[in-house]
Design a protein that fits this description.
- The N and C termini lie far apart (about 50 Å).
- This protein is elongated.
- The strands form three sheets. It has a six-stranded mixed β-sheet, with helices on both faces. Strands 5-4-3-6 form a four-stranded parallel β-sheet, with helices on both faces. A four-stranded antiparallel β-sheet has the order 12-13-11-14.
- Helix 7 crosses helix 8 and helix 11 crosses helix 12.
- It has 15 helices and 14 strands.
- Helix content is about 45%, strand content about 20%.
- The protein has about 400 residues and is α/β, with parallel strands linked by helices.
Length: about 400
């Protein structure tokens, strides 16, 4: 059984493995609230996952430790298990789907784990892990549906009670539900008045849908940039704990997550992966009542793949109204491009690129198109420039931010 004593014990055990991460204020995320960030993105291995994995492994019997552990993950859980096993001097085998990012594969290998690449997707890697467990007697370390793992994640709740007095609400990313189960259980035991909100990607709302339907549901598929919370089905333990202790679960879109990642980088100088920024996105876009409240966003991880970071930043700029794409129809004569550039410059816009194109069949034979990418401060600033272009007699036939 999960108990508060177990969470306290996990906190004691983890002192030499997991870091007590800082909580920092972030007023600009939502000016209507007193917002704080729990920086698990700065945790050892770059994610909270090491807490649960390390506590679970610490409680294995000598016989279990002798045989070693096995896990299946394409990211943060793999690294947490690998590091914890290394600390205890035991063998760790990690099954990874063949398409896992090279950066995550090598990070896991750097902690001394034996890597098994499995053709296919996560489910194939999971089945291989179970096969190897049965064949060699390894202990399987589940990423979320385990009471000891949940107790390890609950240590974040203990830290929040000490770090943020008069806390009103906590926003927690939710995939399989291990993190929010531990945090919600711990906080509700110590202060039932604290609201606990789960945050899922709109493309992977497995826990939200399960709680709404009153039973565990398995999604047919998931699609989100927040791969750390892209889970098709919650566990039975996490489902029960969320049913009892979580106040609500909200969803955020990939565009909202991208905007949060960009904000955290620019304003807080923090790098977060999609799952880690989901909690901040929920507060930024008022997914739950936060006005006048003291709230904490748990930034669950910072292991974003650099190969997709540029795309995420681009989406964040678009979501914030700071990147605009428009097509202008002009008469092909001297001075037209200068007129467009002057209008944009006088109103503080910054043109990043211009593409000239002859008019299409059926249009004015003297016409041409300008495709412009433009940087603006926000959507209101963009609308100001659009209005000025209209007043100058420049026809916009397409605008997309």
């Amino acid at each position: 059984m999960l108990t508060l004593d177990r969470v306290y014990h996990a906190s004691y055990v983890l002192k030499n493995t997991a870091r007590r991460t800082d909580v920092i204020q972030a007023k600009l995320i939502n000016p209507s609230a007193d917002v704080w960030l729990k920086t698990e993105n700065l945790q050892v291995t770059g994610s909270f996952k090491v807490r649960g994995a390390a506590y679970k492994i610490s409680q294995l019997t000598d016989e279990e430790k002798k045989h070693g552990v096995i896990a299946c993950s394409a990211g943060n859980h793999a690294q947490g298990v690998a590091l914890a096993a290394q600390k205890h001097g035991i063998k760790a085998v990690i099954c990874l789907p063949a398409g896992a990012p090279i950066s995550k594969v090598e990070a896991t290998r750097s902690y001394g784990a034996e890597i098994v690449m499995v053709p296919g997707v996560y489910d194939d890697a999971y089945q291989k892990a179970l096969e190897l467990r049965d064949q060699y007697g390894y202990t399987f370390i589940h990423p979320f549906n385990d009471e000891l793992v949940i107790a390890g994640q609950g240590t974040i709740g203990l830290e929040l009670i000490d770090q943020v007095p008069d806390l009103d609400a906590v926003f927690v990313p939710v995939g399989g539900g291990g993190l929010i189960s531990g945090v919600a259980f711990t906080l509700k035991q110590l202060n039932p008045k604290i609201k606990v909100y789960g945050v899922q990607a709109a493309g992977a709302p497995s826990m939200k849908q399960s709680l709404a339907d009153g039973k565990i549901e398995k999604l047919a598929d998931v699609s989100t940039i927040a791969d750390g919370i892209a889970v098709k089905e919650p566990g039975d333990l996490t489902y029960d704990l969320c049913s009892k202790y979580v106040d609500d679960i909200v969803t955020v879109t990939d565009d909202e997550i991208s905007a949060a990642i960009l904000h955290l980088m620019e304003k807080q100088k923090l790098v977060c992966e999609g799952a880690g920024a989901a909690s901040a996105a929920a507060v930024m876009f008022n997914k739950a009542p936060v006005a006048g409240k003291k709230v904490v966003c748990i930034l669950s991880g910072g292991n974003i793949d650099v190969n997709i970071l540029n795309r995420v930043i681009s989406r964040g700029l678009i979501m914030g109204g700071r990147s605009q794409r428009m097509t202008l129809e002009l008469v092909d004569k001297p001075g037209q491009l200068q007129l467009v550039a002057t209008v944009i410059a006088e109103h503080g816009g910054n043109v990043n690129s211009v593409v000239y194109e002859n008019s299409e069949e059926g249009s004015d034979v003297n016409g041409c198109y300008l495709h412009i990418n433009m940087e603006t401060r926000n959507q209101a600033h963009a609308e100001e420039i659009f209005k000025a272009l209209d007043e100058a007699g420049i026809r916009r036939i397409h605008t997309k931010n």
